[in-house]
């Protein structure tokens, strides 16, 4: 059972990190692009808290939350977004292209499903006993390579947990305009059992994932989890076309920080809030003063 | 005598035997069929756990192989026809070729995609193309082409085990049946290695006993054979003495062997089976022009005309470059020089 306060701490860390990015983009501290995770924090935290140290995470363009939940250094991530030598990938990758330990992300939607399947199979062929977890959004389900990967994963028995974070919107296109049929049925068609959660509660995500990971480890076959989720922020920085009332309603009813924070004593919550606030600010300031990326190309 | 097919099969067999990280993936590669062109024949019997027949999913298997390479295996993917390699472009260009660099050199992706390109078999528009030029100039992606000169089996073996980056290995279909011609083994011409490349060497081919060449031919793959035939005929029938530079690594391009030759001869003709525009020859010629300036007195390119490749034999012959096209182009360059 994961520690409730530690889970809350990671939720807040992701939230403050992403809010800092959006605010500081406006002030010119960052260049390039970003895809914020605000509202979906329970998914990353609830899944990754259950992983073993050698397990592998494959993430997508919206990867900051996954990276921080994995234990990635906020200063290195800020640095990567600022193009600093201290960045996760020395400034070469930027926001969407991160690698640290067994964490990999890439910005091409759908491409990460075959990649993760190959990773999981390579681990299995080398008897490494790991599970690979791949995060994808509902938007990626429009890509054909996703289904080739589902087929391979099932056919060849990949120890893979597929987490579909369904935030019901692909950039600005609502899911009703982009997805026919049901996500679970798509997985079922390939013989991949799909569990479904409609929640922003990190404990519910965590409990489900704990069982699924045990099943993947035991069966050495893929499992999927579809989480109905909500992103509060824009796709990128300022491209949200949804009505403000809709966002406010989502924030009121589906905020992972509120849902889980309400379980904690106010004093504990406030302590964590202050601590994380200071930590994120310090990481930002450190990265800001780090030297720019240089060296040979 | 060894055919190119036997040499490549032997290169794969040795790689599988020497390194347990090597895995083969591809469509219909299991025995008794052994692959559409039989390059993998016998391998699934010898290494059943590492030779994996796949569904018809070129994009998926290439992406999968990138993941396998990232985590310690050395996958070799067979794409049944080079035409289908368009389906591998996203996993190769946007994943495999970028990972090492964009992850700041913290990983390596030793992934090989082998595929037969080329026409002259009447397979028609979607099973005959030479589209390797689509993969040239992609940062992080190496492109190597076998020919029957040198040691194609060793070339493939090195591709799999002696380098750690994603690589497209091009095999022209008509090479499979040709006998391997090793350095020094030929009667009416001489062949020697040229340039400084260790893994993927270049070769120089000259007519035995001929005067100093006044024309450089540059080719790769099966066109190296047609260029060799042209080289001999130019010498014996028209007293035009040329030397042929054969490259095995097409990208990143190391033009030095061609430059060295063209600097001596002052004339350059590039020869490829793919279509003319924005092709390998254009890049070779640009490099030579940039380096040699007016020392390059005349130049030309031989390539396919820019239509899809017809199935009918007579039409296909008119589409793809033949020996006669090389002869005509060579004479034209000679005429330019003397005009």
The fold-level CATH name of the largest domain in chain B is Rossmann fold
Number of domains of chain A: 1
- Which spans of chain B of ≥5 residues are poorly predicted at pLDDT below 50? none
| Chain-averaged pLDDT of chain B | 96
Number of DSSP helical runs of chain A: 11
Q: Order of helices and strands of chain A, N to C?
A: HHEHHEEHEHEEEHEHEHHH
Write the layout of secondary structure elements.
The complex is a heterodimer of chains A (297) and B (339).
Chain A: H1 4-27, H2 41-48, E1 56-59, H3 64-69, H4 74-82, E2 99-100, E3 103-105, H5 112-125, E4 132-137, H6 144-155, E5 160-166, E6 169-170, E7 173-174, H7 183-189, E8 194-198, H8 202-219, E9 223-228, H9 244-253, H10 256-261, H11 266-289
Chain B: H1 4-18, E1 22-26, H2 43-46, E2 51-53, H3 58-70, E3 74-78, H4 89-102, E4 112-117, E5 142-145, H5 152-161, E6 167-172, E7 189-194, E8 202-207, E9 215-219, H6 223-238, E10 242-246, E11 249-251, H7 256-265, E12 267-275, H8 280-292, E13 298-304, H9 313-319, H10 323-338
Parallel strand pairs in B: 1-2, 1-3, 3-4, 4-6, 5-6, 9-10, 9-12, 12-13
Antiparallel strand pairs in B: 5-11, 7-8, 8-10
Helix pairs in contact in B: 1-5, 3-4, 6-10, 7-8
Q: Care to describe what's here?
A:
- The complex is a heterodimer of chains A (297) and B (339).
- Chain A is an alpha/beta fold.
- Chain A has 11 helices and 9 strands.
- In chain A, the strands form 2 sheets. Chain A has a 7-stranded mixed beta sheet with strand order 2-3-1-4-5-9-8, sandwiched between helices. A two-stranded antiparallel sheet of chain A has the order 6-7.
- The longest helix of chain A is centred in the first third of the chain and has 24 residues, at 4-27.
- The termini of chain A are far apart.
- The model of chain A has no long low-confidence stretch (mean pLDDT 96).
- By secondary structure, chain B is α/β, with parallel strands linked by helices.
- Chain B has 2 domains: 4-175, Thiamin diphosphate (ThDP)-binding fold, Pyr/PP domains (Rossmann fold, 3-Layer(aba) Sandwich), CATH 3.40.50; 189-338, 3-Layer(aba) Sandwich (Rossmann fold), CATH 3.40.50.920.
- In chain B, strands 2-1-3-4-6-5-11 form a 7-stranded mixed beta sheet, with helices on both faces. Chain B has a 6-stranded mixed beta sheet with strand order 7-8-10-9-12-13, with helices on both faces.
- The mean pLDDT of chain B is 96.
- Classes of the chains: A alpha/beta (297), B alpha/beta (339).
- Chain A binds chain B through residues 56, 89-90, 92-93, 97, 99, 104, 106, 108, 111, 113-123, 125-126, 144-145, 148-149, 151-152, 155-156, and chain B through 23, 52, 54-55, 57, 59-73, 75, 90-91, 94-95, 98-99, 101-104, 106-107.
């Amino acid at each position: 059972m994961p520690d409730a306060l530690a889970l809350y701490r990671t939720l807040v860390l992701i939230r403050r990190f992403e809010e800092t990015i959006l605010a500081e983009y406006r002030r010119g501290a960052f260049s390039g692009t970003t895809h914020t995770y605000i509202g979906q924090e329970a998914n990353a935290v609830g899944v990754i808290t259950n992983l073993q140290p050698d397990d592998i995470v494959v993430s997508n363009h919206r990867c900051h939350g996954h990276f921080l939940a994995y234990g990635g250094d906020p200063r290195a991530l800020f640095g990567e977004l600022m193009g600093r030598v201290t960045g996760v990938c020395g400034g070469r990758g930027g926001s969407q292209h991160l690698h640290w330990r067994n964490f990999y992300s890439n910005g091409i939607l759908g491409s990460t499903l075959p990649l993760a399947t190959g990773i999981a199979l390579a681990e299995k062929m080398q008897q490494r006993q790991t599970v690979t977890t791949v995060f994808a959004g509902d938007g990626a389900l429009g890509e054909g390579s996703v289904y080739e990967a589902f087929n391979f994963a099932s056919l060849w028995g990949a120890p893979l947990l597929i987490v579909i974070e369904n935030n019901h919107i692909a950039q600005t296109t609502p899911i009703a305009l982009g997805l026919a049929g049901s996500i679970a049925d798509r997985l079922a068609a390939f013989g991949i059992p799909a569990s479904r959660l409609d929640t922003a509660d990190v404990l519910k995500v965590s409990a489900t994932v704990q069982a699924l990971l045990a099943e993947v480890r035991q069966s050495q076959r893929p499992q999927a989890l579809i989480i109905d989720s909500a992103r509060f922020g824009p796709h990128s920085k300022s491209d949200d076309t949804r009505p403000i009332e809709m966002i406010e309603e989502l924030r009121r009813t589906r905020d992972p920080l509120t849902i889980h924070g309400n379980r904690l004593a106010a004093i504990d919550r406030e302590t964590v809030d202050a601590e994380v606030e200071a930590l994120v600010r310090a990481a930002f300031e450190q990265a800001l003063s780090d030297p720019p990326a240089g060296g040979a190309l | 005598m060894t055919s190119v097919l036997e040499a490549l099969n032997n290169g794969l067999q040795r790689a599988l035997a020497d390194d347990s990280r090597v895995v083969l993936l591809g469509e219909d590669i299991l025995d008794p069929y052994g692959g559409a062109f039989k390059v993998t024949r016998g391998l699934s019997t010898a290494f059943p756990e590492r030779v994996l027949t796949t569904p018809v999913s070129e994009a998926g298997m290439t992406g999968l192989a990138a993941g396998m390479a990232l985590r310690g295996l050395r996958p070799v993917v067979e794409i049944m026809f080079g035409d289908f390699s368009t389906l591998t472009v996203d996993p190769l260009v946007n994943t495999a070729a970028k990972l090492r660099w964009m992850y700041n050199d913290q990983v390596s992706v030793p992934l090989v995609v082998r595929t037969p390109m080329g026409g002259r078999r009447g397979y028609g528009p979607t099973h005959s193309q030479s589209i390797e030029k689509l993969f040239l100039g992609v940062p992080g992606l190496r492109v190597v082409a076998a020919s029957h000169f040198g040691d194609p089996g060793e070339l493939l073996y090195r591709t799999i085990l002696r380098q750690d980056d994603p690589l497209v290995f091009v095999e022209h279909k008509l090479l499979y049946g040709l006998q391997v011609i090793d350095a020094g083994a030929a009667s009416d011409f001489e062949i020697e290695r040229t340039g400084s490349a260790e893994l993927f060497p270049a070769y120089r081919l000259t007519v035995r006993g001929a005067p100093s060449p006044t024309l450089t031919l540059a080719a790769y793959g099966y066109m190296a054979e047609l260029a060799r035939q042209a080289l001999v005929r130019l010498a014996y029938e028209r007293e035009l003495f040329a030397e042929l530079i054969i490259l095995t690594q097409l990208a990143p391009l190391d033009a030095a062997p061609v430059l060295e030759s063209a600097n001596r001869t002052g004339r350059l003709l590039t020869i490829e089976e793919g279509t003319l525009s924005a092709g390998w020859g254009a890049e070779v010629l640009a490099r030579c022009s940039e380096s040699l300036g007016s020392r390059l007195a005349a130049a030309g390119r031989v390539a396919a005309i820019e239509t899809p490749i017809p199935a009918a034999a007579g039409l296909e012959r008119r589409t793809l470059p033949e020996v006669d096209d090389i002869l005509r182009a060579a004479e034209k360059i000679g005429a330019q020089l003397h005009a």
